[in-house]
Write a structure and sequence with these properties.
- Chain A: Keywords: 4Fe-4S, Iron, Iron-sulfur, Metal-binding.
- Chain A: Pfam families: Fe_hyd_lg_C, Fer4_10, FeS.
- Chain A: One of its GO terms (molecular function) is 4 iron, 4 sulfur cluster binding.
- The complex is a heterodimer of chains A (about 450) and B (about 140).
- With about 450 residues, chain A is an alpha/beta fold.
- Chain A has helices spanning about 20-25, 50-55, 95-100, 110-130, 140-150, 165-180, 195-205, 220-230, 245, 255-260, 270-280, 310-325, 355-375, 385-395, 405-425, 435-440, and strands spanning about 10, 30-35, 35-40, 60, 75-80, 105-110, 135, 190-195, 215-220, 265-270, 290-295.
- In chain A, strands 6-5-8-9 form a four-stranded parallel β-sheet, sandwiched between helices. A three-stranded parallel β-sheet of chain A has the order 7-11-10, with helices on one face.
- In chain A, α3 (about 95-100) packs across α8 (about 220-230).
- The longest helix of chain A is centred in the last third of the chain and has 20 residues, at about 405-425.
- Chain A is elongated, with a radius of gyration of 29 Å.
- Chain B is an alpha+beta fold and about 140 residues long.
- Helix content of chain B is about 35%, strand content about 30%.
- In chain B, β4 (about 115-125) and β5 (about 125-135) form a beta hairpin.
- Chain B starts with a strand and ends with a strand.
- The mean pLDDT of chain B is about 90.
- Classes of the chains: A alpha/beta (about 450), B alpha+beta (about 140).
- Chains A and B meet through α13 of A and α1 and α2 of B.
């Protein structure tokens, strides 16, 4: 088995080798080599920034297809809260959920419902755990969790040890389906309707054991197939059970609105998340109890696999949250252990220059020196995202000094000058003007 | 190896940049996350102290596989009573600095909490030299 699974991949055919993606990657995980982008597996956090930025649609997310439903006797769809915001106002959530059944699923379990239970668990955890690190950081966005694993390993202890709503939804859906059908847990397939590649990776390669979710299908794919079926009569109508509290999780700020306890901070957009994490790392924000952090701008409705414009979806979500605010409370497990992460999330130190600290330090010193000599234009033509990154690549043996086109040009210029100079030098035996001698003229010097 | 940065007093727009660079270097050097965390807190607070209180100064990081030293040297008003300045909440920062959310009197106490070894020398109306060490285990 490969060490890392990644949902984000490259379409070799479409990639032109431009430098848009390398400049936007938050973990500097992409290099251009031989005219194609290459993803450094151990650094990639599957945030999908490159999918968004690529002008040639050469970055794609591997997700499961609807065919995979056939592998199971009984299948349950787990629509993400952000899914409700993708449709026109006249399409009700009930129609959307019913159409999922028409698509081939046997049942639907709303992730928004699990989000309500997780909101309770988070609130409860903050109440019982007095000596917790401050602020606690949400575990819901897998791209943020992996960002912390790679770039902020010292903040891993700040991540709340509570499972994400998707993971809890998968567990609850399976339990419910087992009770309903009498089938074995293995015979039931749970499928997340995902707004992003990060969730796909969380399903395929969870940080602990095995995910409760069997597959993740792109929201864009389901959306297309679903639109045709909205008109068709559903096998049986499904009423949404989730309230505005859970549905709100689909947009930035919704998680904190659902938790409603202590001092809360919400941040969205991967680069904004990074600056807040930097502040926490240097000892700041200790007056905050909980940080909601989402890699996508606008929250999950801004995911790379979401069909609707996030600003339109935001308004729609707002209306739904208001409308469903008063849904009846449902009975979910009220013990914290049901929601707890069993093992600590490991660090993924992919940014060191060498395993041996002595070697790493020597390389760091060398990289510092090279960096001062490079032009500092960060043009990306060398295939590395910045001059600094090129220096780091050089000391690790992944790049050569000649990759810098400005240095190359300078060296060529020097070489050309030397050639002109050489051309003007004559060996002693050739020190006469041959033409004049042949014509019988006077020899000149 | 050594990293050295110039820090200007009252330059809040660039405050924290030196500490961020030191952090990145420590990460590249493969230091333990706990060491990095302690060192960055010290570097940041020491850098902020120069920005808030001094005219100008330097922030230096000496990195070896076993130890990180952070040295902050400044020309400034100095600290008349170091034990008092080490108390949580004690601050001489003027109101306009506090309004920006700085100068809460936690700088030196936070440094003390994070440092394995700490030495502060100061002369009134001349400047302050802070030396802190974190051991990498």
């Amino acid at each position: 088995m490969q060490q890392y699974f990644h949902s984000v991949r490259l379409d070799e055919e479409k990639c032109k080798g431009c430098t848009n993606c390398i400049k936007h990657c938050p973990t500097e995980a992409i290099r251009v080599r031989k005219g194609r982008a290459r993803i450094i597996e151990e650094r990639c956090i599957d945030c999908g920034e490159c999918i968004r930025i690529c002008p040639n649609q050469a970055k794609l997310a591997i997700t499961d297809c609807l065919e995979k439903l056939k592998d199971f006797k009984y299948t349950v769809a787990l629509p993400a809260p952000s899914f409700y915001g993708q449709f026109k106002p006249e399409v009700t959530p009930s129609q959307v959920l019913s159409a999922l059944l028409a698509l081939g699923f046997h049942d639907v379990f709303e992730v928004a419902l699990a989000a309500e239970a997780v909101s309770w668990a988070i609130r409860h955890y903050m109440g019982v755990c007095v000596d917790r690190p401050r602020p606690l950081i949400s575990s819901a966005c897998p791209a943020v969790v992996r960002l912390i694993q790679v770039r902020f390993p010292s903040l891993l202890e700040h991540i709340i040890p509570i499972e994400s709503p998707m993971e809890i939804a998968g567990r609850m859906a399976r339990e419910q389906a087992c009770r309903k059908t009498g089938l074995e847990p293995d015979e039931i397939g749970t499928f997340f309707i995902t707004p992003c590649p990060a969730k796909v990776t969380e399903v395929k390669q969870p940080s602990e054991g095995r995910s409760s979710v069997d597959g993740a299908i792109s929201m864009a794919v389901v959306y297309g197939a679903l639109l045709k079926r909205l008109e068709m009569p559903a096998p049986y109508p499904v009423a949404p059970r989730a309230s505005g509290v859970g549905i709100g999780w689909g947009r930035a700020g919704g998680e904190n609105e659902a938790i409603k306890a202590g001092s809360l901070l919400a941040v969205d957009g991967i680069h904004s998340v990074i600056s807040v994490l930097e502040e926490i790392e240097r000892g700041g924000l200790t007056d905050i109890d909980y940080l909601e952090a989402q890699a996508c701008t606008g929250g999950c409705i801004g995911g790379p696999l979401v069909p609707q414009n996030p600003f339109v979806a935001r308004v729609r979500m707002g209306n739904l949250v208001k409308y469903y605010r008063s849904q009846e409370k449902w009975e979910f497990p009220r013990e914290l252990d049901y929601y707890r992460l069993k093992t600590p999330i490991p660090a993924r130190p992919a940014l060191t220059l060498a395993k041996d600290p002595q070697v790493a330090l020597a390389r760091l010193e060398e990289a510092e020196r090279i960096c001062t000599e490079l032009p500092g234009l960060d043009c990306g033509s060398c295939g590395s995202p910045s001059c600094r990154a090129l220096a780091e690549d050089i000391v690790q043996g992944y790049a050569r000094r000649s990759y810098c086109i400005f240095e190359l040009r300078e060296r060529l210029q020097q070489l050309a000058e030397e050639m002109v100079e050489l051309a003007q030098k004559q060996p002693p035996a050739m020190g006469r003007d041959w033409k004049q001698i042949r014509d019988g003229g006077v020899e000149t010097d | 190896m050594q990293l050295k940065f110039q820090v200007k007093g009252m330059d809040f727009s660039r405050a924290g940049q030196a500490a961020t660079k030191i952090k990145k270097a420590l990460q590249l050097a493969g230091m333990d996350p706990a060491t990095i965390r302690k060192a960055i807190i010290i570097a940041y607070e020491a850098e902020m102290n120069i920005v808030i209180h001094a005219y100008h100064g330097t922030l230096t990081a000496n990195i070896t596989p076993h130890k990180v030293e952070i040295i902050a040297e400044d020309e400034g008003p100095g600290i008349p009573d170091i034990p008092l300045a080490m108390q949580e909440g004690y601050s001489t920062a003027p109101p306009h600095i506090r309004e920006m959310g700085f100068g809460a009197g936690m700088g030196l106490p936070n440094i003390k909490k994070s440092a394995d070894e700490l030495d502060i020398q100061s002369e009134v109306n001349k400047g302050t030299k802070l030396w802190a060490a974190v051991f990498n285990n």
